[in-house]
Amino acid sequence: MPVLTRRRLLEKAAVSAYSAAVTTARTTGAAAAAATAVGATVAACDDSPGQPIPEPTLGLSFPTGFVWGAATSAYQIEGAAAEDGRTPSVWDTFSHTPGKVRNGDTGDVAADHYHRFAADLDLMKSIGLSSYRFSIAWPRVIRDGKGPVNQQGLDFYKRLVDGLHQRGITPMATLYHWDTPQALQDAGGWENRDTAYRFAEYAAAVTEALGDSVPTWLTLNEPKTVVQNGYLNGGHAPGFRDPAKAYVVAHHLMLAHGLAVEAARPHIGGSRIGPALNLHPCYPADESADAAEQTHLMDGFENRLYLDPVFRGEYPRDTLEAIAAFSPMAQYIKDGDLKIISAPVDVLAVQYYTPIYVTAGGGTVQKHPLTEAFWQQIYPRGLTDILVRVKKDYGDVPLTITENGLPTPDQLGADGKVDDAGRIAFLRDHFAAAHAAIAQGVRLESYHVWSFMDNFEWQEGYEQRWGLIYVDYPTQRRIPKRSALWYSDVIHANKV
Ligand code: FCB
Q1: How much is the pTM?
Q2: Nearest atom within ligand 1 for CA of residue 276
Q3: Half-sphere exposure of 393 (CA within 13 A, CB side)
Q4: Which stretches in the chain have pLDDT values below 70?
Q5: Which residue from 174, 290, 167, 277 is spatially nearest to 224, judged by alpha carbons?
Q6: Which of 38, 125, 151, 236 sits between 20 and 30 A of 363, alpha carbons compared?
């Protein structure tokens, strides 16, 4: 029998899954059957290591044991918005408000992962992922954010975690990826200190149930994005444009992080816990002293406001002073809060997408090619810089990259393939940037590509495609893109 490389098998699987799915969908009209066909076919792939990587490689080997993974979040992929007792979150409300999300898209169905998770896990296995970062939906587990656990909601995540272990994939769970229960929002949301305590109760309930079956727990995903998009520019739920509120929210989010670490600790045994922060390296746009000063200020808002309280037990003074001009944040910081926020963490999850260039006037400019996401400049070197800087300023905490990726204008070809060469180039250069940080002594342990599959990209709806796996939404077929095949080769060679 001729020996096929793993890449050929995956490619073959993608095409045959595609035609099987099309045939099934045509003959029976059953989208669910089509998706099952995808999972089943792809899962049958060979897994033999050491095959040649056909894309040009840089010849950079990663340390033995380096972990390769991919990430998603609950609202972006699960769908099943009203099933098994799930109550609405701020994102249900926001996406159902006309004009808030492109094309009026919502996460009601999304990638239907709630029903198709087993086939999705098979697909992860066939690529060779060794870690999968997902998030747990707060309003699935605690209805309306208060009161007893909703067992049916929790059981979904038990099945997911078990399914990952069965396939040899390590789970990494985020407790909060922006889906605040709407009932808590109605009571003031993150402006209300009480929400931080409700979050800690939820964190305790989830970790009590799943504990050390999840080796890495992440508290909050990108608190800065909640502050900036949810409360400053209004582009995300809950959609405020209120600088005064925004930084009260920032403090309560950080408090929620600290309380959750405290609440989870007794339940997680030897597992690790930490926050997931999106860090933006800030550079002066020119050589002037003013640009340097403004860059430092910007760095406070982008990075230090979230890193300093966790790792140094204090908010950066210059940032607090700047905030005092427009927000009463300082009045909301109670004695003992910073002690709670700086409870020791075991890991820092870094998410990197773009650098920021700051002008002498405090504005920003773009200096590098942009992706389809208007805010994203392609600058791999920024990843090296931010990782090295974290080590220098905050010590030797173990680091994981929990998000990095880009949207590309992917299309399903007549041949059943999706050729996303741009994603391959982007990831290759960012992997190399991570490699450079490791070479400089950074304790980087793993890398999760954003995203495992196409999904609901918040206010952009389904228009932007960030996945390694193409999702054909009308049929819910999954098709591994060329980047998924390439990534599979990288993982098996542990080399880019
Ligand atoms: C990050 C979010 C993630 C996804 C990517 C593109 O900020 O955490 O959910 O939307 O951006």
Answers
A1: 0.91
A2: 8
A3: 16
A4: 1-55
A5: 277
A6: 236
